[in-house]
């Protein structure tokens, strides 16, 4: 039996602002519905990912920011950095460590993201 992680929930204060931000990052807006006046559910997926994020009103337990960090994995950290910069996202410089290369950014609510590149996966 496979167990797949497909959705991670993020607390946000402004759903429309979060949706606009993640659209600029490059996430696809999969779903946006309000089954009741108290609930709005937005689901967005990074390109090529099997896991989405979800946020909205009435769907998370705590206030932003999330206590956890989410990680995106890429095959080209410089291209990822350039994409985020071109989209107007405040992003760190590339952090090169022994175990990988990283850039970091926060969404408007302070939810923290790492973008990881592992050179050994792509070197021949």
Count of helices? 3
- The ordered H/E elements are EHEEEEHEEEH
What is the terminal-to-terminal distance?
Answer: 33 Å
Helix content: 10-25%
* DSSP E strands, number: 8
Range of strand content: 35-45%
Largest sheet: 4 strands, mixed
Notable characteristics:
3 helices; alpha/beta; about 120 residues; four-stranded mixed β-sheet; globular
How would you characterize the overall build of this protein?
With 124 residues, this protein is α/β, with parallel strands linked by helices. The chain contains three helices and eight strands. The protein has helices at 15-25, 77-86, 119-122; strands at residues 7-9, 28-36, 39-45, 52-57, 69-73, 95-97, 100-106, 112-117. Strands 1-4-3-2 form a four-stranded mixed sheet, with helices on one face. A hairpin with a 5-residue loop joins strand 7 (100-106) and strand 8 (112-117). It is globular and about 50 Å long. The mean pLDDT is 94.
């Amino acid at each position: 039996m496979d167990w797949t992680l497909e959705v991670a929930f993020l607390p946000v204060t402004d759903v429309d602002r979060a949706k606009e931000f993640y659209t600029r990052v490059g996430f696809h807006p999969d779903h946006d519905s309000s089954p009741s006046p108290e609930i709005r559910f937005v689901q967005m997926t990074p390109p090529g990912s099997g896991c989405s994020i979800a946020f909205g009103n009435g769907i998370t337990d705590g206030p932003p920011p999330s206590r956890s960090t989410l990680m995106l994995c890429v095959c080209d950290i410089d291209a990822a950095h350039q994409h985020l910069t071109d989209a107007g996202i405040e992003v760190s410089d590339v952090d090169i460590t022994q175990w990988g290369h990283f850039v970091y950014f926060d969404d408007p609510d302070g939810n923290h993201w790492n973008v990881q590149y592992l050179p050994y996966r792509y070197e021949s």
